[in-house]
Amino acid sequence: MCHRVCPFSEEREEMFTGVHCVAYLSPAGTTRRVAERIVRALQQQGIDPFVLDLACRNKQFYAQGESCCLWLGSPVYVDHALPQVQRFIRGLPEGESFYAVPYVTWGAVCSGVALPEMTQELQSRRWRTVAAAKVLGQHSSLWRSAEPLAAGHPNEEDLLLIDQLVAGTLEKLKQADVVPLAEQTLHYLPGDQEQQSWQKSLAKAIALQSPHQPDHQRCIRCGGCLLSCPVGALVWRDDYPHVEENCIRCHQCTRICPQKAYPYDADAVEARIRGFAAASREEKCTQIFL
User: Fold this and answer.
1) What confidence tens digit (pLDDT) does each residue in 241-288 have?
2) What pLDDT digit, counting tens, does each position of 197-249 carry?
3) What is the CATH number of the domain that holds 128?
4) Residues 248, 14, 224, CA angle at the centre, nearest 5°?
5) H-type alpha helices, the chain
6) Structural domain total, the chain
7) Counting CB atoms within 10 angstroms of each CB, which of 34, 76, 83, 118 has the fewest?
């Protein structure tokens, strides 16, 4: 019983074997922290998972054999999972005995419909969602704030729930007939709020924002922003960094730039985010679903 996970680039292709894969995209590092906790919990059960960081490069997942379990993590952006994570799911092989545990990190505004939509995409590939989690994390866009939303999260209490998620999932997978999560389990938002979340999108939000390009008068062409971009949205053009259309507005380039060449109105961003958080009726906590 095995599966193969294959990350590839134009230069190389590598093959890996195992039963569990922990995959994630983590622009600010919070989703990576959860992934690391999942890996640790699996290792404590004698399982050595393959870890797949989806940052920058195209990745594909190959599965064969009787069964495997994919632990897939994404931060929540504008109430949705990142497009890159959804695209990764659409590239999964179809399978009858393949299982998944989607998990998201969110910054105390709204976890939206990230988990339902990840589950829907997984179902389209005939992968069965057996557990899930939404993990509270400090809001990544408020790094300049004196009091960011969900400061200090995920804390140890949050991560202990992840340990419970792993233990509960492994118990489910031992059953002769593995029962997936009930469809309604992940539709936990009030009905009207969930409908609003479905109508939102990262693309719509970006379209309302000012163009995100570095000021050439400030830029010293150090290249740090290109190295920091988790989705490969920065390229050299006319001897300066240029932001491409696949930018997700994670602002890692803004944070790392020593010259403050990327425009960012921290006060306006904070006011907007706090307004959204105040309007959301979702309880600000970590929750696991088994």
Assistant:
1) 999 999 999 999 999 999 999 999 999 999 999 999 999 999 999 999
2) 999 999 999 999 989 999 999 999 999 999 999 999 999 999 999 999 999 99
3) 3.40.50.360
4) 35
5) 30-44, 83-90, 114-124, 156-173, 191-199, 202-207, 224-228, 252-256, 266-279
6) 2
7) 83
My answer on whether 225 and 143 are in the same domain is: no
3-state SS string over 228-281? Answer: HCCCCCEEEECCEEEECCCCCCCCHHHHHCCCCCCCCCHHHHHHHHHHHHHHCC
Q: How confident is the model at residue 165 (pLDDT cuts 50, 70, 90)?
A: very high
| Nearest CA-CA partner of 70 in 78, 58, 59, 55 | 59
237 & 259 share domain = yes
Residue 65, pLDDT score: 52
Q: How far are the Cα atoms of 109, 129, 142, 185, 272 from residue 267, in angstroms, in the given order?
A: 17, 39, 9, 37, 9
What does the DSSP 8-state code read for residue 71? Answer: E
Within a domain: residue 194? no
Distance CA 270, CA 149 (A): 9
**Residue 64 lies inside a defined structural domain of this protein:** yes
Closest of 186, 123, 154 to residue 34, by C-alpha: 154
Residue of 63, 51, 62 lying closest to 25 (CA atoms): 51
C-alpha pair distances (Å), 28 with each of 77, 139, 163, 198:
12, 9, 22, 24
Token code pair at residue 222: 């150090």
What is this structure's pTM? 0.91
Residues 81 and 105 in one domain: yes
